[in-house]
């Protein structure tokens, strides 16, 4: 984790000296689920994500955007109850921008903060059954206004097994729809 943060800081410092680096905040709605060969009897669960980002231009239409997000994920269980997983996610997105629109692709590491099973008003800590980190591939698209306000959608495809039991293959699946504000966008558009 320290290596990721250090690498992002070095990249930001390198490109930040010559380009208009933007930074901002994001808030989004998650539609999360658990997938895998052994996953049965679950359906999508609504959650949210909240955090910040740094947008670092690396070429005329290309930017690198590392983010730090708190994300509520998991799934509903058929017949009642839910599995609630809270992660701190660190995606690093490569964006292609054109006329306010952007497409993005990049890896993500997730650090598990808590895991609880809820049923009939009772909550049980189940963190011991889950791995402390997860890996995903993200891809998405969006639009940013010159004012700095932007809208986007992103799909996070889980790549790693999130449960400690190696016989069970369980992965995350999250569709996010959100809004963001880029504090550096207005300064960049004034040039």
Structure description:
- With 191 residues, this protein is mainly beta.
- The chain is built from two helices and ten strands, in the order H-E-E-E-E-E-E-E-E-E-E-H.
- Strands 1-3-4-5-6-8-9-10 form an eight-stranded antiparallel β-barrel.
- The longest helix is centred in the N-terminal third of the chain and has 15 residues.
- It is elongated.
Brief summary of the model shown:
The protein contains two helices and ten strands. It has an eight-stranded antiparallel barrel.
Q: Which structural class do the helices and strands define? A: mainly beta
Q: Give the neighbour order of strands across the main sheet.
A: 1-3-4-5-6-8-9-10
Q: What spatial form do the alpha-carbon principal axes imply? A: elongated
Fraction of helical residues: 10-25%
How far from one another are the termini?
36 Å
Rg (C-alpha, Å): 18 Å
- Low-pLDDT windows of residues: 187-191
Question: What is the H/E order?
Answer: HEEEEEEEEEEH
Tally of contiguous helical segments: 2
- Mean of pLDDT: 89
Estimate what percentage of residues fall within beta strands. over 45%
Main sheet attributes: strand count, strand direction, barrel closure: 8 strands, antiparallel, barrel
Count of β-strands: 10
Give the helix/strand layout:
Layout: H1 2-16, E1 22-35, E2 42-43, E3 45-57, E4 62-77, E5 82-98, E6 101-119, E7 122-125, E8 133-144, E9 149-158, E10 171-182, H2 185-190
Antiparallel strand pairs: 1-3, 1-10, 2-4, 3-4, 4-5, 5-6, 6-7, 6-8, 8-9, 9-10
């Amino acid at each position: 984790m320290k290596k990721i943060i250090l690498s992002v800081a070095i990249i930001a410092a390198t490109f930040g000296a010559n380009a208009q680096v933007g930074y901002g905040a994001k808030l989004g709605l998650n539609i999360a689920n658990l997938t895998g060969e052994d996953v049965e009897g679950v359906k999508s669960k609504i959650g949210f994500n909240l955090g910040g980002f740094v947008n670092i231009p690396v070429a005329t239409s290309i930017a690198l955007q590392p983010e730090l997000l708190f994300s509520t994920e998991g799934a509903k269980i058929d017949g009642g109850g839910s599995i609630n997983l809270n992660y701190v996610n660190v995606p690093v997105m490569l964006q292609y921008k054109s006329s306010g629109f952007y497409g993005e692709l990049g890896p993500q590491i997730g650090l598990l903060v808590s895991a609880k099973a809820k049923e009939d008003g009772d909550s049980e800590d189940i963190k011991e059954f889950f791995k402390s980190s997860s890996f995903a591939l993200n891809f998405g698209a969006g639009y940013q206004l010159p004012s700095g306000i932007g809208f986007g959608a992103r799909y996070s495809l889980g790549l790693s097994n999130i449960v400690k039991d190696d016989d069970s293959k369980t992965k995350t699946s999250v569709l996010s729809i959100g809004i963001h504000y880029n504090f550096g966008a207005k300064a960049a558009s004034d040039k």
